[in-house]
Amino acid sequence: MPTKSRQSSGRFPALGVLCSGQGTNLQAILDAARTGRLRARVAVVISDRADAPALARAKRAGVPASFVDPKAYAGREAYDRALIERLERAGVRVVCLAGFMRMLSPRFIRHFRGRVLNIHPALLPAFPGAQAIHDALAWGAKVTGVTVHLADEQIDHGPIILQEAVPIAPGETQATLLAKLHRVEHRVYPQAIQTLLDGRAAVRGRRVGIRRAPR
Ligand code: GAR
Predict the structure, then answer these.
(1) Which of 45, 111, 139, 141 is the most buried (most CB within 10 A)?
(2) Is the pTM of this model over 0.85?
(3) Nearest-10 Cα torsion for 193, 195, 196, 202
(4) Predicted pLDDT of residue 7
(5) What's the distance, Cα to Cα, between the start and end of the chain in Å?
(6) Separation of 5 CA from ligand 1 center, angstroms?
(7) Is the peptide bond before 53 cis (omega within 30 degrees of 0)?
(8) Would residue 134 show up in a list of annotated catalytic residues for this protein?
(9) Domains of the chain, CATH where assigned
(10) CB half-sphere exposure, 189, CA atoms < 13 A
């Protein structure tokens, strides 16, 4: 009889992952949950793009995944109500934005306040937005990095859970820098999710104190 994978184990808290693209961060979360490095299960994946490869990754892992078409809703609020409904139906404790390239409404943020994580390929507040890697290279920065933060009402803005620096080498291209940043993202995003799930992130205004994980 096939053994039940850890990812499918119902006793772990449920995550909802929102994606728009490749879904390599989604894959890192799925892999971490499968191997037990992350004590959580991905309960639902939603994309705002029909052709997002992230949807196929979710399906391969046996996770319910759907394209929710923004054009089918009257506006951002109505769209986000549909997202909230799907995430609640799946019993989601924490929402992970993994390359979800839509701004969330204040209503969505209020609903899941303190429970929405975002990952960004720069050391915020430097280089927010959708072109962070291009912008860091164009600026001539010598160092960039990865930020995982709680989402708030502004783009790439909320309190920071963790950051890791990545040096920009001479001759670095967008492709080589993307690969370096992804390696870091795929390692730190599951860590940040676990920190939040464990209740080890104490948020005071913009500052987040992190308690170390028990050994
Ligand atoms: C990731 O690099 C993530 O940091 C970035 O989108 C990429 C998604 O890649 N997010 C942002 O730029 C948010 N402003 P993935 O689909 O392969 O995980």
Answers:
(1) 45
(2) yes
(3) -150
(4) 57
(5) 34
(6) 27
(7) no
(8) no
(9) 1-113 (3.40.50.170), 118-215 (3.40.50.170)
(10) 32
